[in-house]
Structures are given as C-alpha cells and as structure tokens.
Amino acid sequence: MISAVKLLSAAAQANVINLHLRETMDHTNTSILIVDDDETNRDILSRRLLREGYTVEQAADGRQALNLLEVERYDLILLDIMMPGMDGYEVLLKIKNDPRLHDIPVIMFSAVADRFSMDRCQTLGAYDYLIKPCEVTMLKARMWRCLFELKLNRPTNRAEHPPRVILIVEDNALNRDLLSRRVKKLGHIPLIAASGDEGLTLLEQNTVDLILLDIMMPRMDGCELLQTLRSRQPLRNVPIIMVSALGDNASLERCRNLGADDFVVKPYNAVILRDRISRALTWRDDRLKASTVSNPQAQLHPTSD
After folding, report:
1. Three-state SS string across 177-240, please?
2. The CATH number, out of the four listed (3.40.50.2300, 3.40.640.10, 3.30.1330.50, 3.60.9.10), of the domain defined by the range 4-149
3. Fewer Cβ in 10 A, N or C end of the chain?
4. DSSP letter, residue 26
C-alpha cells in the first residue's frame, strides 16, 4: 500500500480525502495503539483521536508496545520509527513475524523522509507511511482508508449501562492492570483478585454484576473456580466471561459446559471486550428481571455456601 502518493504534500493529499469513508466509519468501534517515545506527541494524538471516538492506548517504547500486544489486540497500530532501545523497524518486524499479530495493519509515522526507509517498511509489511510533521486531517484520512479497505469496522453494541461492579480474577499483574483500566474507562467499578481463592473471598464480601475470569492460574484454576461459582445458587445468574489465551475448541467447550456465558481470547480487542461486557450486563439485567417476576422476593446476594 505504500506508494509514490506518500511523497505528495500534506495539503495536496488532504484534497483527495474520500468523504464516503468518513461518513461510513464508526470510530467508536475501533481501537488504536499509538507507539511513540515522545510523550507530547502521544498525548496530542491520543486526545485528538479520543475526540473522534476511537478507543486509544499508548506505548512509550517498542517493548511496552509488544507487552500490550500480548494482552490486547488492536485494529490499527500507529508506530514511530526513531525510538531508543527497540526502534520502529524492529517492532514492525516482530509484529509481522508473530502469527497472532501479523494481520494487524501498521501505519508508520516518522521524521525520516527518505525512500529507503519507506521501502524498508513496505518490505517489512507496513500498511502505510506518513512523514512528520503530518496534518491531522491527512492522518485521519489514511486511517479511514485503511480501516475501510480492510473491513475492520464492525457492528456496534450501543447498549449503555450505569456503573456496575465487575470482578476481575487474573494472576498476571499486567493483565489485571489492563483489564481494570478498561473496566474503569467503561464507567464501571473493578474488584481485583489475583487468584481463585481471592476471588471467592471477594464474592463472600461483595455483590458483583459480572466476573471476568482467567483460566490458567496456580492452585485453583479458572475452570475449577467457574464450577464452584455455578454450584452456588445466588451466583448462578451472575454472568461470567472467560478471558484466556486458551482459544482451542476443547477449552471453549469445557467452559461452556461448566456454565461460562462467554469467552474472549487473549490478546483481546478492547472494542470487542467492551461489547461483550455490555452484552453480558444486558443478560444480567434480563435474568434479574425474570427472576424477580417469577419470585418477587428473590434477590442476588453473595454467599459462602
């Protein structure tokens, strides 16, 4: 996709923006990872994209970006080239050599304006290349074109919910932190447990509306905890989403048979996770209404049974 058009002036390129792309894209349904060692650049670009409705995450260097990609999956990556330690070329190479990540489009942006750098990025698999400083209008046009051509826009779940309490059971500290931040950005209240035992303790002390549950944990794994939760009557109507790197059919079927409501495979897309959470909370509300109709005295409370 990198061509001679990249050499046109930003103003000239801005004149050829296809308005149809802007009208048909739903930005609230698209997740972007910005990788740039310059904090000012990251902050300005992030705020502008957030105003457009995008879901945005930032990484200050290549290693942090790769760590984030171990947990979350993005629709598009905006990647700077000149960074200390691991430069953008190396990050791009690692992304394109990873079978889990190689299909994520990457737009390079850099002050390096020579043809050699453009050709190198194209050979490594970059979707596009922008030269700094770049007009925001041009960057957004390239993003729209990329997302539209690759059909990365997906139906949006528009359901909104008041703040809910969501229990996160995850033994990995980075994963817990990212999930907690996602939950907070959605306007909900996270409860954090680093193990199955901690999760059970929190459930004995708190009423929760949803559980995000990892599978691979020491001592009590997610499947064992799931089975325990579904054996307790007051917790049977609480939706449980498994969030795990185990995406094989056997794991999916096992969790379904044990009573999981949904399954999100790591690295997950933040937009998809948002929609799954919204859908699960809608299920929760529907179940609670049905339970109240059939038994007006019924209420959901934590239990230590």
Report:
1. HHHHHHHHHCCCEEEEECCHHHHHHHHHHCCCCEEEECCCCCCCCHHHHHHHHHCCHHHCCCCE
2. 3.40.50.2300
3. C
4. -
CB 214 within 8 A of CB 172: yes
User: Which helix (H) or strand (E) element contains residue 163?
Assistant: none
Alpha-carbon gap, residue 196 to 202, rounded angstroms = 10
Which numeric CATH code is attached to 165-294?
A: 3.40.50.2300
pLDDT tier for residue 297 given thresholds of 50, 70 and 90: very low
pTM of the model: 0.65
Contact 77, 152 (CB under 8 A): no
At 154 the pLDDT is 52
In whole angstroms, what is the distance from residue 40 CA to residue 33 CA?
16
What pLDDT does 23 receive? 42
Strand partners, 166: 190, 210
Q: Which pair of tokens denotes residue 154?
A: 């997906």
Among 242, 249, 238, 250, smallest CA distance to 214 is for 242
Q: What is the CA radius of gyration of the chain?
A: 22
Dist. CA 151–CA 112, nearest whole Å: 29
Of the segments 67-71, 204-208, 283-287, which one has the largest average pLDDT value?
Answer: 67-71
Per-residue pLDDT at 11: 42
- Give the Cβ contact number of residue 155 at 10 Å: 8
Q: What is the pLDDT of residues 239-282, one digit of tens each?
A: 999 999 888 889 999 999 999 999 999 888 888 899 999 999 98
Contact 173, 165 (CB under 8 A): no
pLDDT score recorded for residue 110: 86
Nearest C-alpha neighbor of 271 from the set 187, 171, 156, 162: 156
Task: State the DSSP H helix or E strand holding residue 60, giving kind and residue range, or none if neither.
Answer: none
